[in-house]
């Protein structure tokens, strides 16, 4: 594929409801959509940065800068026959994994479209549908939390995840377990606790949680190993895992029993597949995380989640759970048995709604090879 043109769009989509986590409240999702044009084909990717470095050190501005000034000049005009050749073009850029992942995913889409196969097939996916769950933000009251949980269960979701933070944890977990004794339930702290909170996690062991996601520091691996020693409930790492090397270290130290894979956090689909394969070798389940993506990112997430060791339900929910109007069609829906279809058309397998995309674009820039 010859890289002829690249376009970046800073998009801002309004969420159907504010999403509150231990990191703050989000009312809109601001990401960068990347389009790559190559020999008559357009590939699309989503860079899952946020306006401020609350989840990751990267932001919309840093990713734009690194793509515009570093990575795009290094790829424009090049001809690639494999994705790993493209990765070589920017291997000198340290960090900035979300920026890299956004571009890499657009290149995967180009390649799959040029081969006329689905992105799922190109990545090595083996499933046509994947089990999906929903991630529920922190709620102002127990009643509203129970209302949210019932509502999503009725829609079919195969598991419920709730966000927690100190003082906003056990009472919600207890109330949900009392009302729904059998559901698959997990919690995500987004690094809100310290090792001094071990008694809170010991209490959580009474509520049959599938896993506890990222309880401690966002870059920590060692303290999680000390906490995991005290608990039977599996710890799942999200923020702390940026590469297959981090995953290897976390597994060697027994810091977690499960890993959440987000391509943006680890630098793209290629690195995600390495982590997936490492975990498969070690019998460690993985699941696909989410960054409140638009339909462009979601389509790629489903393709990746169709690989065999994504054995737990992903944070991949229906379009309408996030936005009143998505920027792709068809919109993503969840079935009554908690599954979502993996797109099977060429590439990411969805059509971009250009008018809708323009309506949510706040800034754009295009780059052409000379
Ligand atoms: O920690 O998994 C997380 C959203 C933004 C940033 C971090 C996280 C999340 C979610 C949302 O939990 C998952 C989704 O996309 O539905
Ligand atoms: Mg998380």
Q: What number of structural domains do the residues give?
A: 2
State the helicity in percent bands. Answer: 25-40%
Average pLDDT level:
98
The name CATH uses for the topology of the largest domain is: TIM Barrel
What does this structure look like?
With 370 residues, this protein is α/β, with parallel strands linked by helices. It folds into two domains: 5-116 and 352-368, Enolase-like, domain 1 (2-Layer Sandwich), CATH 3.30.390; 122-341, Enolase-like C-terminal domain (TIM Barrel, Alpha-Beta Barrel). Helix content is 36%, strand content 22%. It contains 14 helices and 15 strands. The protein has helices at 60-75, 83-89, 97-115, 119-123, 142-155, 170-179, 198-204, 222-230, 244-252, 263-266, 269-281, 295-305, 319-322, 354-360, and strands at 5-21, 24-38, 41-47, 129-131, 134-136, 160-163, 185-188, 212-213, 235-237, 258-261, 286-288, 328-329, 339-341, 351-352, 361-368. Helix 1 crosses helix 3 and helix 5 (142-155) crosses helix 6. The protein is globular and about 60 Å long. Residues 188, 190, 213-214, 238, 260, 289 line the site of magnesium ion.
């Amino acid at each position: 594929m010859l890289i002829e043109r690249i376009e970046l769009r800073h998009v801002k989509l309004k969420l159907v409801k504010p999403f509150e986590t231990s990191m703050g409240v989000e009312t809109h999702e601001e990401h960068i959509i990347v389009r790559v044009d190559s020999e008559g084909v357009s590939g699309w990717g989503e860079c899952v940065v946020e306006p401020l470095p609350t989840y990751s050190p990267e932001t919309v501005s840093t990713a734009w800068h690194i793509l515009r000034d570093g990575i795009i000049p290094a790829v424009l005009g090049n001809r690639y026959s494999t994705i790993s050749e493209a990765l070589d073009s920017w291997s000198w850029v340290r960090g900035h994994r979300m920026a890299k992942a956004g571009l890499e995913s657009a290149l995967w889409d180009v390649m799959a479209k040029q081969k006329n196969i689905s992105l799922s097939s190109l990545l090595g996916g083996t499933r046509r549908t994947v089990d999906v769950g929903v991630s529920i933000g922190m709620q102002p009251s127990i009643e509203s939390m129970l209302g949210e949980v019932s509502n999503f269960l009725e829609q079919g979701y195969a598991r419920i995840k709730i966000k927690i933070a100190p003082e906003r944890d056990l009472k919600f977990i207890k109330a949900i377990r009392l009302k729904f004794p059998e559901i698959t339930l997990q919690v995500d702290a987004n690094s809100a606790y310290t090792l001094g909170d071990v008694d809170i996690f010991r209490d959580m062991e009474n509520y049959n949680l599938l896993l506890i996601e990222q309880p401690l520091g966002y870059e920590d691996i060692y303290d999680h190993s000390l906490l995991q020693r005290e608990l039977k409930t599996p710890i799942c790492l999200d923020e702390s895992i940026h590469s297959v090397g981090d995953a290897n270290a976390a597994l060697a130290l027994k810091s977690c029993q499960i890993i959440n894979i987000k391509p943006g956090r680890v630098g793209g689909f290629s690195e995600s597949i390495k982590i997936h394969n490492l975990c498969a070798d070690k019998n460690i389940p993985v699941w696909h995380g989410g960054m409140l993506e638009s339909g462009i990112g979601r389509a790629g997430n489903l393709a990746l989640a169709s690989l065999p060791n994504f054995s737990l339900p992903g944070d991949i929910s229906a379009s309408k759970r996030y936005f009143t109007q998505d920027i792709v069609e068809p919109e993503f829906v969840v079935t009554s048995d908690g599954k979502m279809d993996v797109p099977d058309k060429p590439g990411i397998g969805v059509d971009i709604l250009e008018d809708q995309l323009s309506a949510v674009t706040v800034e754009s820039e295009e780059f052409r090879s000379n």
